[in-house]
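User: We ran a pulldown and think these components assemble together. Before we commit to crystallization trials, I'd like a predicted model of the whole complex to look at. Sequences follow.
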Amino acid sequence: MELVCPAGSLPALKAAVDNGADAVYFGFRDSTNARQFAGLNFNDKRAAEGIDYAHARGVRVFCAINTYPQPDGWQQWTSAVDRAAAMGVDAMILADMGLLDYAANRYPDTPRHLSVQGSATSYEALRFYKDNFDIRRAVLPRVLSLDQVKGVARNSPVELEVFAFGSLCIMAEGRCYLSSYLTDESPNTRGACSPAKAVRWQETPQGLESRLNEVLIDRYGDGEAAGYPTLCKGRFKVEGSVYHAIEEPVSLNTMDLLPELKALGISAVKIEGRQRSPAYIADVARTWRQALDRLDAAPDKFVPEAAWRNTLAGLSEGGLTTLGAYHRKWK
Amino acid sequence: MMKLSLGPILWFWSRQTVFEFYGKAADWPVDTIYLGETVCSRRRALKPGDWFGLARDLRACGKDVVLSSQTLIESEADLRQLRKLCEQDEFLVEANDQSALQLACANGIPFVTGPSMNIYNVATLKILARKGLKGWCLPVELGRDTLRQLIRGLDEQGLELPAEVFSWGFLPLAWSSRCFTARHYNLPKDNCEFRCLQHPDGLELRSRESQELFRINGISTLSGARYDLMRELPEMADMGVATVRLSPEHQGMDEVVERFDLVRRGGVPRMDPLTLVEAPPCNGYWYGKPGMDQVRA
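Assistant: Here's a predicted model for the assembly, 628 residues in total across the polymer chains.
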């Protein structure tokens, strides 16, 4: 299985390449990709440099252009496709049907991967994208259980990539509008969820408060670790009780499932986190490289090492990891 | 004159409540009615045969009937249900995900798309038009400026694809594999005791400052404020919007339909309060603002 690592900057890209990634993915410095953060991502010069660095070391490079262009932004998005193709990326990660069609017609030789933002949760949906846009690979959403992944894998017309580690989206990606409901930006429209520009931290007599466009997302007592106010991970009130009504701040970690994913014929495991530091990327890439190498050597005997678990837990939100939807009980 | 449509019931109501609701809706001045369970595969108060029966009855009352597909397709069982829907051509199908698109295309049946379909530009509409798209609903997070450009773009392409706008009700904002209602009751999803039945308009999720943020409805999350574009109807008519979608609620719906019908005909409604579940209004998405905002026109 291929290890696909995030690159939010040139140093992060190099960290991924140097620590065992088989492929890295990046986006341009605008809202054409689903990790639009201030100071993150690549201008053309940096992108070309990164591609050279990776290719010189036998690592593939994917370009994520996986948000949804509206009519007034159409040229900006097609320009991103044009530039990625001209730079010689190994694949484009796309979600929008119009853009997939554009890329398939203009650059038939540059492989197209369906982004998780393309909302394909079944093999019939994958067939739609395969038949119409000849995608080579699809990234599956984080809402399927392992049994459901099995069902998709058995009938999939394309290679599959699954999320292995990082932030856990618990809503079906590509059709979650929670962020644009509270702020004016969503992953689909602007490549942003719970955007930093709308975040405000405030010390109050009741504790440290995190707000998103003034909406109280969480309030932390003494000694409680505060996390980024991703809106679905806040504590809210339902029928008088206050709790993480949607999801706890935890990270996805599927290392325990590697033998099963391999047996299913999954082509690649994806690390989330283009917003993360080069040091984080280096640690995660190195750990997963070791795990995948061990898996390849003896798939039947694979057990994650305690040291790997500790490293990953230390890099996780709230120090906690979950199998997420892969584990039926989580639902 | 713009058409009025009743969207699919997004909540879990008892069989009797559903039949009573559509019994009344048959007499309301709505042109189109969307039928079917779009949220949760465990909600089976009505069997497929019941939905078809309702569809035929409502058609006999002069309504255009569309059968809506489940929004999040996860399992082989979900696909089996979907195939039944996409292998019939008695009624138009509303495709709410790409699995439904594929099955409708494979069977060569015409279809329309609901607000959860990822349609953000003219290129996408053109592709779907070639596949048999007969009409489309604007994603809820898009506003009037984008809609105007989309309608203009379709005109320039010579494509006739009637646009529908989700114009009234709690906005469907997200779908998950996790059931938030079951989570609230500390029940596993597979043994949820159908608690959604106790909440015919969802469970309120508020901030710790009691601001109404969302409504929990099984695996789906809806807006805490009620979207209301009644004042924007004249603007929609000018833009060339074909259909105005109203999302069912279990009380006061007759009054809502009556009011929208009056306004689409150029009338001025009384502004006394309706007998609705209490919720703040919002219209932000239409104006390109955060969805929860209420913009004074």
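The longest helix of chain B spans residues 48-60. That may be worth checking against your pulldown data before setting up trials.

User: Thanks, that helps.
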